[in-house]
Amino acid sequence: MMIRRDHDVILGERDLEPLFSFEKFPVFMGCVKHPSADDICVDMSFHISRSSGMIQLNPLVPLEILYPESHGAGFIGASWEAHHQAFAEFIASYSPGSVLEVGGGHGILSVKYAGLKQIPWTILEPNPTPIPECKATVLKGFFDSDFTLGGGVDAVVHSHLFEHIYQPLDFLQDLKKFIKVGKRLIFSVPNMKVMVERKFTNCLNFEHTVYLSEQYIEFLLAGNGFKLERKEYFRDDHSIFYAAVRDDDLSDAELSGSLYQENKKLYLDYVDHHKALIKSINERVAAEQGRDVYLFGAHVQAQYLIGFGLDISRIKAVLDNDKNKTGKRLYGTDLNVATPASLVGINRPMVIIRAGTFTQEIMEQITALNPTTEFLQ
Q1: Cα separation of 60 and 44, whole Å?
Q2: Cα Rg for the chain, rounded, in angstroms?
Q3: Residues 104, 259: contact at Cβ < 8 Å?
Q4: Is the pLDDT of residue 218 over 50?
Q5: What percent of the chain has pLDDT over 90?
Q6: Which domains, ranges and CATH numbers included, belong to the chain?
Q7: Is the peptide bond prior to 371 cis by the omega test (within 30 degrees of 0)?
Q8: What is the 3-state secondary structure (H, E, C) of the chain?
Q9: Which GO terms describe its biological process (predicted)?
Q10: What is the pLDDT of residue 76?
Q11: What pLDDT shows up at residue 345?
């Protein structure tokens, strides 16, 4: 079932060294209604290339299993609203006459852009679930070397897609073929280096299978016919916006020779941090018998904490703001999903939360619902 990717995705070398493996990790990071016996769990094993220092997953889950449906990531919350608005404004600064958005999901970015300028906008997405306000042309499918679009476009756009691509080098080569010289590639990616440095639990997983730090992104762009024009940071720990123009007159890029040692230490420190964190949380919960315990985030953050050994025997429910998840079950567990409003009236509930850049926003929301809540993070 699994797909072998035993070569470095940056340089192609077959020099992968094992880093850390989670046993029997859920392959889908969303919520479902089917019985837990139907869930698929396989080992999630990270490796590092000795030549490039790239951290990557091997083996991989087939796409049709990994993405059976949309799971709502990047859709709910004020932070994502602000991200999509800021990214739309970043795109608008280049005034493209037409756009192809690869992996447009719910179509929110196209709606934000339409509020600034009206242009032809096409979305290519394997699991399209456009919101009613989306007026873009929506195509179902994946972008590859065979994809064509009559007339071409001024810019290809993607948001939080690049880190999902199994073969980033092939993806950029396909984009190079599709985008005409002088036209643009504009995209947003998570700030992965900062996320790992700050021990955010949602950085690398079955969907985010490559550690695309800035050095790797800029190396790949320059090596595949894209001249970096501009990059902009959205908050200091969330995303990076890139604009690059197709240009065949580029010199070869180089990677730092120290990335192997730097990235290996960075990731192993990340693992050690989470092991210690889970030990502390388990001890804290065990010491507070009689109190209701909840886990926030019906997504990969919760699955990660469980994978690191979180004791879920006391957890009453997984809390999530996405109402489409309410009443469903977090894949890979027997935990059902409830809204944060479930905390209203409960005396001193304990909420385990590791939501990265969104943590403070969520804690403020929950505190407004129940000021007696204690957070474990």
Answers
A1: 8
A2: 21
A3: no
A4: yes
A5: 89
A6: 78-246 (3.40.50.150), 290-376 (3.40.50.720)
A7: no
A8: CCECCCCCCCCCCCCEEEEEEEEEEECCCCEECCCHHHCCEEEEEEEEECCCCCEEECCECCHHHHCCCCCCCCCCCHHHHHHHHHHHHHHHCCCCCCEEEECCCCCHHHHHHHCCCCCCEEEEECCCCCCCCCCCEEEECCCCCCCCCCCCCCEEEEECCHHHCCCHHHHHHHHHHHCCCCCEEEEEEECHHHHHHCCCCCCCCCCCCECCCHHHHHHHHHHCCEEEEEEEEECCCCEEEEEEEECCCCCCCCCCCCHHHHHHHHHHHHHHHHHHHHHHHHHHHHCCCCCCEEEECCCHHHHHHHHCCCCCCCEEEEECCCCCCCCCEECCCCCEEECHHHHCCCCCCEEECCCHHHHHHHHHHHHHHCCCCEEEC
A9: methylation
A10: 61
A11: 96
Encode pLDDT of 135-180 as tens digits.
Answer: 999 999 989 999 999 888 999 999 999 999 999 999 999 999 999 9
Instruction: Give the tokens for residue 304.
Output: 């990660």
pLDDT digits (tens, 9 = 90+) for 249-286: 988 789 999 999 999 999 999 999 999 999 999 999 99
